[in-house]
């Protein structure tokens, strides 16, 4: 097959122009993407790790059910130490409940053993809490697991604490 030289040159020029046009568009797209990234605000810094040393001391803690008609708070004093040992909740009736704690990023995870409920008469309960420091307060959620309570065996509470002087 004998292709005229002019046709071959015309096709080559068309391919060259198409290739250059794509390169120009890619450069334009890259420049637009870089400008958009430069204009985007920087993401906020990650929250600070929860500090057991900062939490050490006594806290006046208040836990209120997140839903339902009973909005009566449960109050206690939480004693915190600079390590994971010796954490304790003390209720107004004098009952002391040891807690196991651990830090997970910006959160304190606390778990109690089973103890006499302050909210439900003649019922035992164990609690699990996740809390964070915010504006000098400790805030989070506590889940109370009641023993032998049937369908009403779990209560979710909003927990807040202020450090005592």
Explain the layout of strands and helices.
Layout lengths: L4 H35 L12 H4 L1 E9 L8 E7 L7 E4 L4 E9 L2 E6 L2 E2 L7 E11 L2 E10 L7 E10 L2
Antiparallel strand pairs: 1-2, 1-9, 2-3, 3-4, 4-5, 5-7, 6-7, 7-8, 8-9
Task: Explain briefly what this protein structure is.
This protein is 24% helix and 41% strand. It has 165 residues and is α+β, with helices and mostly antiparallel strands. It has an eight-stranded antiparallel beta barrel.
Structure, explained:
By secondary structure, this protein is α+β, with helices and mostly antiparallel strands. The protein has 2 domains: 43 residues; 112 residues, Beta Barrel (Lipocalin). Strands 1-2-3-4-5-7-8-9 form an 8-stranded antiparallel beta barrel. The protein starts with a helix and ends with a strand. The mean pLDDT is 86.
Helix residue percentage? 10-25%
**What radius of gyration results from the CA coordinates?**
31 Å
CATH fold-level label of the largest domain? Lipocalin
> How much beta, percentage-wise?
35-45%
> Main β-sheet: number of strands, strand sense, barrel status?
8 strands, antiparallel, barrel
CATH architecture of the largest domain: Beta Barrel
User: Domains counted in the coordinates: how many?
Assistant: 2
Let me know the CATH homologous superfamily of the largest domain. Answer: Quinohemoprotein amine dehydrogenase alpha subunit, domain 2
Spans of at least 5 consecutive residues whose pLDDT stays below 50 are none
Task: Please write the CATH class name of the largest domain.
Answer: Mainly Beta
Q: Let me know the average pLDDT.
A: 86
* SSE-based structural type: alpha+beta
Sequence of secondary-structure elements = HHEEEEEEEEE
Give the overall shape, derived from the CA principal axes.
Answer: elongated
Number of helices: 2
Biggest sheet: strand arrangement: 1-2-3-4-5-7-8-9
How many strands?
9
Distance, first to last CA: 98 Å
